[in-house]
Amino acid sequence: MENLLRKGVREAVRVLYGAELEEGLLQIQKTRKEFAGDLTIVVFPLTRISRKSPELTAMEIGEFLTANIDAVSVYNVIKGFLNVTVSPEEWARRLFQISEVSDYGFTAPGDNPVTIVIEYSSPNTNKPLHLGHIRNNLLGFSLSRICGAAGNRVIRTNIVNDRGIHICKSMVAWKLFGDGATPASTAKKGDHFVGDYYVLFDRKHREQAAALEAAGVKPDEARDTAPLMLAARDMLLKWEAGDEETVQLWHMMNSWVYEGFDVTYKALGVEFDKIYYESDTYKLGKEIVLQALKEGHLVRKDDGSVWIDLTADKLDHKLLLRSDGTAVYMTQDLGTAVIRYNDYHFDRHIYVVGNEQNYHFQVLALALLRMGFKWAGGLHHFSYGMVELPEGKMKSREGMVVDADDLISEMTDTARSMSQELGKLGGYSEDEKENIYRQIGLAALKYFILKVDPKKNMTFNPLESIDFNGNTGPFIQYTYTRIRSVLKKADEAGIHWGHGKQDTLTPNQKEINVIKLLNDFPALVTEAAGELSPALIANYCYDLAREFNQFYHDYTILGEADTDLRDFRLRLSDLTGRVIETGLWLLGIEAPERM
Questions:
Q1: Which pLDDT tens digit goes with each residue over 467-500?
Q2: pLDDT by residue (tens digit) across 233-284?
Q3: Residue 410 backbone phi and psi in degrees, to 5
């Protein structure tokens, strides 16, 4: 629609003013809600060609458009803005055109698509996934689908933080207090089993530190010199030195965690194209740091630690290697970035990581650029806000978290309870019902999280998220099932609505409102990819579902006596259902046929 108007305005300028219009001068936007019209042309830049006032220029171009373009029915001028109303007949034609596009909303990749690596999840192998990880995974997975739909080549990656002092804490606690227990012997999921020992380490460590403080040791020193902390540091040194017993323990405990993670990822419906492990990438990171040190990009302090000086970039000094030669997080991120570039030669690399790591990713990009890796200019930190509960923040070390597995199970249970009250799943087997409960529960969880601007902190309220009315995932799913029910009944009645001259009809305003939103979908997908915002897709799906329900409430479809109008409404319903299904897919949400 906008392209048609652009062509018309260029022709108007050529005919009216004898000039060729530069593309940069033509600004077209959606008409603001308080004014009549569908699209607005900003006329001010065109006055340099017309040599007339903005109002007169707008009127002359408006007259030309209404006289020469059937799609334009009327216009109005508000100062230097030309508001154009698209004719109802043009909206009908537009519906017919876009409904024939099988992959509507998707941009086909070009001959040389932009390659985007997206990293999300990034769990530690010392604890199970929790609510914060859920937001991370949902954002990253949705971004991968949105960017792919916009015509990019997308690689979904995960970096598992499987080494470091925090991992050694769980290992030390199990070795000292585990008494040979395993996930199998305790009937516990592997990641939960190992996470319990991380919490146990913290509790025992605090007890030891408190005893040292009571004996007169300063708090910081007490925490650093407590026997458990010394044991964890010693274990890290042994691990990096390749001590056989330590490495075997590490392999065993990590394998328990990976089995647990796989169950959670499957339940959440997220996937990866490639999983990297910090235990592999940190080695290259150390080599990069030592080479950069030789080249004079870094400094070694008297205690042997290696740092980068970023004061010229208005940051500070950043540690890259400890005095004992062990790596820090930054070390492995340097190695991971280089390995990924060598693997994929990406144009952009998006890190989906919470906003508490803003400084870390500033340093990462600057450090790589300082070391001569020019592609580091394509690194982007997708910084999102924290997710909390109504009760407040979560604390992993103290075990005060909302476990991902428990939350998924709770959402499914709530969906089961609410669906049973509605009683609309008669005739389904128990397995089919359970699958629908799962789909509804996950839709509630995913949509509630993804509809929020990712930059903002948010509070997750499970009960609000699963309401079948309002701005929720189940409401959008229910609209989809309503449409599928109508189309199924049409099929059973032998109605073949895909033919005929429905594009010559004059739709009513409620129908036009739906068509307008459907027409916006491809541009919205492109915008969401550019803005890196699943929230745009989520709230669009709600707007479309709400608009369709208003039409559905006021007008009959299968009961319409005029068969051409009936078939037009079936076409409108079908495309709405397809777009809702696609929009939900971009969010990682399933669209059940029945609820």
A1: 778 899 999 999 999 999 999 999 999 999 887 6
A2: 999 999 989 999 999 999 999 999 999 999 999 999 999 999 999 999 999 9
A3: -65, -40
Region of residue 77 (phi > 0: left; psi between -120 and 50: alpha; otherwise: beta): beta
The pair phi, psi for residue 303, each rounded to 5°, is -85, 0
Pairing mode, strands 348-354 and 115-119? parallel
Which CA distances in Å does 471 have to 137, 179, 476, 541? 22, 50, 8, 9
Residue 595 lies in a domain: no
The three-state secondary structure class of 340 is: helix
CATH number at residue 323: 3.40.50.620
Please, which residues have CB within 8 angstroms of residue 489's CB and are 6 or more apart in sequence? 558
Q: CA separation (Å) from 341 to 268, 344, 375, 402?
A: 28, 5, 8, 35
CATH number at residue 53: 3.30.1360.70
Residue 579: partners with Cβ closer than 8 Å, 6 or more residues away: 104, 105, 518, 521, 544
The tally of domains found in the chain comes to: 3
CATH number of the domain that 559 lies in?
Answer: 1.10.730.10
Q: Is residue 563 part of a domain?
A: yes
Strands 72-78 and 306-309: unpaired
Q: Residue 319 region, left (φ>0) first, then alpha (ψ -120 to 50), else beta?
A: beta
Contact 47/32 with Cβ under 8 angstroms? no
Residue 184 burial by CB count (10 A; 0-12/13-18/19+): exposed, middle or buried?
exposed
Which of 540, 549, 532 is CA-nearest to residue 580? 540
In which domain, by residue range, is 508 found? 416-586
Domain annotation covers residue 175: yes
- Closest by CA to 293, choosing from 280, 306, 282, is 306
